[in-house]
Automatic annotation (TrEMBL):
Domain of life the protein comes from: Bacteria
Top-level EC class: hydrolase
Protein name per Swiss-Prot or TrEMBL: Adenosine deaminase
Record carries keyword Hydrolase: yes
Stretches assigned to the Amidohydrolase-related domain: 50-406
Amino acid sequence: MEHQILAARWVFPIEGPPLERAVVEIEDSRIAAVYQGTHPQAVDLGNTALIPGLVNAHTHLEFSQLEAPLGPTRPFTEWIRSIMQSRFNCSIPASQRIQQGIEESLTSGTTCLGEIATSSESLQLLSADDRKPSAVVFRECLGFTPDRIQDQQQIAAEYLQLGTDLELGDAVGLGLSPHAPYSVNPDLYLNLVQQARDQGVPTAVHLAETEDELEFLSQKSGPFVDLLSELGLWDPQILRDGMRLYDYLVPLAELTSALAVHGNYFGDAEMEFLKQAPQISVVYCPRTHHYFGHRPHPWYRLISQGINVALGTDSRASNPDLSLWKELQFLRDTFPEVSTGLILECGTLAGARALELSDELGSLAVGKRADLALIQLPEYSAPDSGSDLLLDSRAYVSRVMLNGVWIN
Ligand SMILES: [Zn+2]
């Protein structure tokens, strides 16, 4: 049995305050002890902080080859057109793009992913060996017209079966992702949520991302109608009257876990509903939100009301990289009034809760998987607190441990 004893200037257990000059002991692949103090056999990691591996609760690894985010961003449907074009023109095999995203995620400190996949390749790559992040891989389903319902449900069913056939270890889970209200027929949406419920798997949906989406649902007009018309898919009968944003949230509460991705424009009715639906987490993608120039995100208000808010990068189509660490630093700079501890919890334990993995990861608690990120702290002479130092713009992820093994 391998026993490792690591000493760092700061340790952030998440469930509990940061510990100065502290030790993390690891037995094989699990955390065995976390305490303030020293140990004669400890490996001294110097001016660093140990934190749990980061949880990126929302990404699409298939766009990881993009060197810069796509544009234009307004209206949002122009960006959708760009993404359709980019997918059509791309000649790099999906497996290569996804692998690139996995590696980028790991080196930037992410040890767990909520991945949206349009094929089974993410699932196969992420379950290939144990030097990969843990993940829940959500199969994306799309189809606005009624003739797509059956084949999309079939795709979802085959995907869930594939998970059984592959005998996934406990590090990779399956989920379904009806893409968004403007791209998924309401009946298909409800059927997919039902399918997820029957199979006991989580669901991720892009919801309340733009004001155009709200207009589309409430008035059946705006840029999404134009886009669907251009694609020959628009029929006003498809959108049921009375199927508003709120009505997309309600069925998610029947699942053991659901991710409402973005939620940029959740209003009072949705927030009231979320307060009594703890199964639903909101995933805020800070830099993507900023890239599109949305109104301020209600993330802090949601948290204040007891709603679980996880963080995501979304894809490289709307973000310059896949670093969740940089999302945390962005939040630090943008919201100086919010504590480092809360920001760090959003990027670790809240993500683990959203993906139903908080028994296994997301904090430095005894018995949890030894998935860690080592943060190199800036050289200050003053004895600053760990919370002041951790998300400083000069602090960076220097090493990553997966299952008790340093991978870099
Ligand atoms: Zn997304």
